[in-house]
Amino acid sequence: MEILKLNETPKRTSRNFNINNIKLENVEIPNNIGKFENLALIYEKKNIIVSEDVEISKLTYGLGEVLEDKVLKNSNVTKKLKINGKIKEDIILEFKLDKNNTNLIENIEIIAEENSQARIIIKYESEEEILGFHNGIIRVNAKDNSIIEIILVNLINKKINNFISIENTLSANSKVDYKIVDFGGKNSITNYYSNILGENASNTINTIYLGTDNQVIDINYIVELRGKKSNVDIKAEGALKDIAKKHFKGTIDFKKGCKKATGNETENCMLLSDTAKSIALPMLLCSEEEVEGNHSSSAGKVGEKELFYIMSRGFSQKEAMKLMVRAKFNNLLEKIYNEKIKEQILTKIDDAFNTNF
Amino acid sequence: MEELLQIKDLHVNAENKEILKGINLKINKGEIHVIMGPNGSGKTTTANAILNNPMYKKTNGSIIFNGEDITNSKTDEIARKGIFMSFQSPEEIPGISVTNFLKYAKNKITGEPVRIFEFREEVKKYMDELCMNSNNMERSLNVGFSEEKKKKNEILQMLVLNPKLAILDETDSGLDVDAIRTVSKGIQMYKNENNAVLIITHNTKILSSLKPDYVHILVNGKIVKTGTGELAKEIEDNGYAKYK
Amino acid sequence: MPKTNVNEINRNIYDIKNKDNYDFKIKKGLTEDIIKEISNQKEDPEWMREFRLKALEIYNKLELPTWGPDISELNMDEIATYVKPKTKLNSNWEDVPEDIKNTFDKLGIPEAEKKSLAGVGAQYDSEVVYHSMKEELIKQGVIYTDMETAVKKYPELVKEHFMKCVPIYDHKFVALHGAVWSGGSFVYVPKGVKVDIPLQSYFRLNSPESGQFEHTLIIVDEGASLHFIEGCSAPKYNKVNLHAGCVELYVKDNAYLRYSTIENWSKNMLNLNTKKAIVGKNAQVDWVTGSFGSKISMLYPMSILNGENAKTEYTGISFAGKGQDLDTGFKVIHNAKNTSSVVNSKSISKNGGKCTYRSLVRINENAKNSKSTVSCESLMLDDISISDTIPTNDIRTDEVEFSHEAKIGKISDKTIFYLMSRGISEEDAKAMIVRGFAYPISKELPIEYAVEMNNLINLELEGSIG
User: Which residues of chain A approach chain C closer than 8 Å at the C-beta?
Assistant: First the structure.
């Protein structure tokens, strides 16, 4: 089987560092994908128009040609959401892979019209034992003064490869806020690109990831700032146990003209076993003078003092670790107001600590 | 009495908003002036406008110092003519030591070479007076200094550079009683009949040991009342309400 | 703020060109015959001759890097890889030919030797023209000589270490170096000997359209210590010159080595240098690097911490002006328990210059209880320059403390105003802030070099801000 080379960074570094892309062997891309019908789509009909005529132009970055083509030409779910006005109720897209719907290849487009506002929850899950395939594209076009919050939750099982490409365009004064929970997938590969064009536009990304067993998580966030006084804030918190592996590539690119723009990026990885591996490449690229950019990344094991403190209150080591991970993820979790989904995420964290520890 | 500074009908914008709306002020040699006012009244803007901070735009009016129009002079020129400003939040400058900075600034202001040994002794003397630890002389300017240390360091610079007019912008804010006493002592050491002090503050603590000749009340970009030290007491008792 | 852009700043002393007055200059290009000819000229022993030919073979097989600055303008057919100056190796300064001596005099080399160095080596084009060391160090068994002499005089020591730390298949320019290397310094500090005053080698490339490929091999034996300084410069020519040196450092158990570099190559130089250190148990290597010159630099000193408790510190600054693309950084591999690394990198970009910080921190499975702290700061002096930070952090075990921080920005207007309010002009204020920014690096250098570095900063800032 051929090797898939995916998720190239915007700037290459030495090949020996093994971070310019990710190479996956034995990835079976199904030819005959069949239908996907297990989608629950909940939305307020008054101000949202849903259609199927999604954008099929190429992505600026994306995961790579093979997977991208598959979505653009051969998807089994296409949804275009046009949002007008301020939407009060959450828009929810729940995809559940099951034995009748094993392959999901979706192309989603969200257009936030001027002055609109909405929160959108996109959740991927699967039945525990099935084999399948997931490969999707989400595009967001945030027009002037729009405010879009996207909660993206990946809880699919550890037998299914999870591929996802995100592309956002931000116009003046728009706000696009992502909360990403990346727990599922055998290999979970995410490409995220934001083009911040408008003045005062702001993009925040809060991610939590959890890798267990032999999961591989490859995250490639690329944010280009072009608008004056635009802003990006990337925060990723993660935990890895067993022989899980994570690549975090985060690029903030200050393009010429983005005067007074600011960009911050932090990534923090908690290593819960001595066989877990964490690679980070936090890039700051800058061709403009009047900007402020910061990044930081750190990695290490759970603080022994904290662990001891919790254990001294009667918790087992396993429970203490779980508590620490939950505490770490809490900042993001408490902002997910959908109790049902939050509960599901917490259960996944618990599960991770109940198996082969 | 000899006139040192005169501000005439000064209008100043900051971030495209008019902050000062026609200020008039005259300071003679030997005088201590105080500008008091609530938050956002334009106190710090006044100080910055005198030093011609490019972030504040003058739209009208003039500033005369020692008979010379300095309205549009560059900040460093104004400093060399003899105006000093103690900053509300002094900048941290890594890699430049306190003494080297003072030496360099002294040389720029006097235009004369600085004799290192005497200079160090002088700085040390002032540091002792201000209860500053002279071990800090070799530390990077203001880097990691506490608020108190930063403010004392401003007063130290004032003493060493010995300007004709010292503007103290909220030098007392964030300081405890002892530190305010030390700062006041520094001001008293500096003050003589040939120079002048302009104190900008929103409380009256620092005025207990310094006797101001004039107190100006600045509200909403204008001086609404000028009086003597008594006025400060009145403000202490009643606040600014009646001037708003 | 108004800015005056000056095309070429006066690099005064660095730019003095001597007539290309060589004894022998190999014809341009890179063929087996040329390598054999270099080998003949240098009277290599057989093993070295074979080594060179093997390296050429590898060079021809390896690809150019697929990342970093564009070095496509480099055409090896246009580069003379060996230029022998018209003199032999001298141990008396007076014996060095006048024109070469003048150059080094102006660069302050003999002056520095008198004042603050324990030994000096001076290379002019492809050969070392002067070497000397204080008598007492000779007595203690310290060896400090040119590489050619070392190959002949200490064959066992050289054979054991030569291109073992940096193997020829590392990358294309290392292979090139292996084929055409010439000159450089060899230092051996015996067990327990502490060399208190630094040794310095200065490399000067005078000949146009040529390359310099010096090899520096330093062995600091168990419990010994050394500070080694390397300086480089060249006058500017219109065509490309190439520098592909190689530095191999062996810091044995309990030993200490500080390796300082002030690099001020001319702005037509491609500087593709490789430096690596292998660090033993309880040993430490510290790198201090100032990169000012060259058109393109690709330089990433590397520490391999092989012994328990081994330490390394990297303190580096690069300053890129018009037409410069300085891609520099640091690599560290933690290969044993309780190892630690500290990285402090600063860069300044102005006048369209580009600085890239590129790095690797790898903490391997066996490096339990290791620590690594990385801090990068970049200063942008205008809006036509570029500053990129590309760090790779590869952590393969859990018992580590790893943190990385980077900042990018300009000089704050508030800070400039503060300094100006103390009577300092805008230009002086900016220069002061930049010097302060560079201070953590300049303070690591001996005073003469710190002064030189500040002069270089002033030189670079002149005419570019105000």
Answer: 11-15, 17-20, 254, 256, 259, 269, 271-301
Q: Which amino acid is it at B74? A: K
Dihedral over alpha carbons C50, C51, C56, C61 (to 10 degrees): 110
Amino acid at C443: K
For the stretch C388-433, pLDDT in tens is: 999 999 999 999 999 999 999 999 999 999 999 999 999 899 989 9
DSSP, collapsed to helix, strand or coil, labels residue C81 as coil
- The strand ranges marked E within C175-320 are 185-189, 199-204, 211-212, 215-220, 225-233, 241-243, 246-251, 256-264, 269-272, 274-279, 284-291, 296-299, 302-305, 311-320
Please report, for residues A183, A272, C314, the alpha-carbon distance to residue A156 in angstroms, rounded to integers and kept in the order given: 8, 22, 44
pLDDT digits (tens, 9 = 90+) for B24-51: 999 999 999 999 999 889 999 999 999 9
Cα distance between residue C129 and residue C203, in whole Å: 10
To test the contact with chain B by mutation, choose from C1, C420, C437, C457 the residue with the greatest count of B C-beta atoms within 10 A, namely C420
CB contact under 8 A, C419 and B94: no
User: CB contact, 8 Å: C62 with chain B?
Assistant: no
Distance from CA of C416 to the nearest CA of B (A): 9
CB neighbour list of residue C231: distance below 8 Å, 6 or more residues apart: C107, C109, C200, C201, C202, C203, C261, C262, C263, C264, C449
Chain B residue closest to C438 (CA)? B95
Whether chains B and C touch (3+ CB pairs under 8 A) is answered by: yes
Determine contact: C396 vs chain A, CB below 8 A. Answer: yes
Closest C-alpha to C218, from C238, C188, C245: C188
CATH assignment of the domain containing B101: 3.40.50.300
Q: Report ipTM for this prediction.
A: 0.90
Nearest to C435 among B78, B95, B108 (CB): B95
Closest chain C CA to residue B91: C415
- Asked if C64 is an interface residue toward chain A (Cβ–Cβ < 8 A), one would say no
Residue in B with minimal Cα distance to C436? B95
Confidence (pTM): 0.88
Beta-carbon separation of C439 and B95 below 8 A: yes
Sign of CA dihedral C106, C107, C113, C114: positive
Neighbours of chain A (3+ CB pairs under 8 A): C
| Encoded tokens for C438 | 């560079």
Are A286 and C399 inside 8 Å of each other by CB?
no
Tally the domains of chain B: 1
> C179: which 2 tokens?
């084929």
The whole-angstrom separation of Cα C216 and Cα B202 is: 66
Q: What are the C-alpha distances in Å from C288 to residues A51, C292, C303?
A: 61, 13, 13
Q: Which residues contact C444 (CB under 8 A, 6 or more apart)?
A: C260, C286, C288, C315
Residue of C414, C417, C437 with shortest CB distance to B94: C437
Nearest CB partner across the interface for B95, out of C418, C423, C440? C440
What was the pLDDT predicted at A127?
Answer: 95
Alpha carbon distance B212, B229 (integer Å): 6
Using H for helix, E for strand and C for coil, what is the string for A122-151?
EEEEECCCCCCEEEEEEEEEECCCCEEEEE
How many angstroms separate the CA atoms of A171 and C23, rounded?
66
Side-chain-side CA neighbours of C466 within 13 Å: the count stands at 12
Interchain proximity B54–C413, CB inside 8 Å: yes
Residue B161: its chain C contacts at CB < 8 A? 422-423
What does the buried/exposed string (b/e) look like for C300-333 if buried means 16 or more CB atoms within 10 Å of the residue's CB?
Answer: bbbbbbbbbbbbbbbbbbbbbbbebbbbbbbbbb
The domains of chain C are located at: 12-299, 412-466
Residues 6+ apart with CB under 8 A from A340: none
- CB of C287 within 8 A of CB of C311? no
B200-244 pLDDT tens trace: 987 777 887 888 999 999 999 999 999 998 888 888 888 888 887
